[in-house]
Amino acid sequence: MAFRLLFLLGLLTVLVAVVVDTMIRAGIFEHVYNHQPGNCKEYEMPGSEDMVLLPNDQVLISSGFYTWEFENLIPKPEPNIFMFDLKAPSAGPQKLVIEGSFLEETPDFTPHGLSHWIDGDGVVYLYVINHRREGDTVECFLYNSESLSLKHRSTIKDESLYNLNDIVVVGLDELYATNDHFFVSPFMKLLETYTRLSWGCVMYYNANRKEAKIAASSLSYPNGIAKSNSGKFIYVNNLLKGELIAYTRNQDDTLTAVQSLTLQPANDNVFVSPVNDHLWVAVMPKPIKISRHYVDRSIPIAGRVIHVTVDVNASLPFNNSKMEEVFSSTGEGFSTNTVALYHDGKLLIGT
């Protein structure tokens, strides 16, 4: 009898600990304050999920993220790629023209994560995660900075790339991508999230060799991914654990975790400064409200931006790192942070 009572008491203790830990990670007890580094200007557009910075100070932005599970609840926004010129911020975001018949042939175009590659001739290849109704693909476009247009070049599709969240291109048609869940069905993905199963992964894909492999595994909702300017390190936001993990690339293109920083759930996208390798991380400190906000945009979601310094002379990127919260919002008027990009004294935040 005493053994049974002790067993039940121990089980109850474990369950309470799990529930309390889940509530903490969901941000239920988190207090967020409004903190801005200066005067902020808001630009109207139908969402901004991810950004890439080009050498000419143009920023390409994906807009119109949509989850097909909510198809009967909310209308699908118009899918767009925008350009924001840091040298002329007063012009605001400018919608790019997608030439040809791509939009007619792909009516379910749903852009998400972005990355780019520039070849030796200066040609810009923009890679865009596309959540098609029948499954995820990566679309490759050629970007023309003068005409502000995109021309569809190719589609990457592989059965291993099925729960895509973000990508980082490391060569022409060569990339790493985060599969943020193992399961595909909405219910099982929800269960995987709330039980915090570490079943997400980072995939390596090389279209030239038709090669796909798991590069890193045992991740809890792997989200944003980026590479250092040297290409030595790959950074991954492990969202449910609030970790920023630094990996090194192996000769076989798999990844080895070498260091991590504890930030805060839910850390979304990560941007690497081309000037000093510093990291800028967008965080949603109250992730419990994300699904509710997606259905009802009047429900505010708090957001933060964290600046992580990186010593490029150190053997590991976080050896001498310092973290600083540079922006914080309760969500009133400025709701959610999905990505943050800092360059030339300007901080651009996506919501």
Going across the biggest sheet, name each strand in turn: 5-9-8-7-6
- Contiguous uncertain segments of 5+ residues: none
User: H/E order of the elements?
Assistant: HEEEEEHEEEEEEHEEEEEEEEHEEEE
Helix share bin: 10-25%
Query: What is the rounded Rg?
Result: 20 Å
* Mean pLDDT over all positions: 90
Q: Strand content of the residues, in percent?
A: 35-45%
Number of strands: 23
What does this structure look like?
It is built from 4 helices and 23 strands. It has helices at residues 2-25, 102-105, 186-194, 290-295; strands at residues 50-53, 58-63, 80-85, 94-95, 97-99, 111-118, 124-132, 135-144, 149-156, 164-171, 174-179, 200-206, 211-219, 222-227, 233-238, 243-249, 255-262, 267-272, 279-283, 303-308, 323-329, 339-343, 346-350. The strands form 6 sheets. A 5-stranded mixed sheet has the order 5-9-8-7-6, with no helix packed on it.
Short structural summary:
The chain contains 4 helices and 23 strands. The protein is mainly β and 351 residues long.
Characteristics:
351 residues; 4 helices; five-stranded mixed beta sheet; mainly beta; 23 strands; four-stranded antiparallel beta sheet
What layout of secondary structure does this protein have?
Elements: H1 2-25, E1 50-53, E2 58-63, E3 80-85, E4 94-95, E5 97-99, H2 102-105, E6 111-118, E7 124-132, E8 135-144, E9 149-156, E10 164-171, E11 174-179, H3 186-194, E12 200-206, E13 211-219, E14 222-227, E15 233-238, E16 243-249, E17 255-262, E18 267-272, E19 279-283, H4 290-295, E20 303-308, E21 323-329, E22 339-343, E23 346-350
Parallel strand pairs: 5-9
Antiparallel strand pairs: 1-2, 2-3, 3-4, 6-7, 7-8, 8-9, 10-11, 11-12, 12-13, 14-15, 15-16, 16-17, 18-19, 19-20, 20-21, 22-23
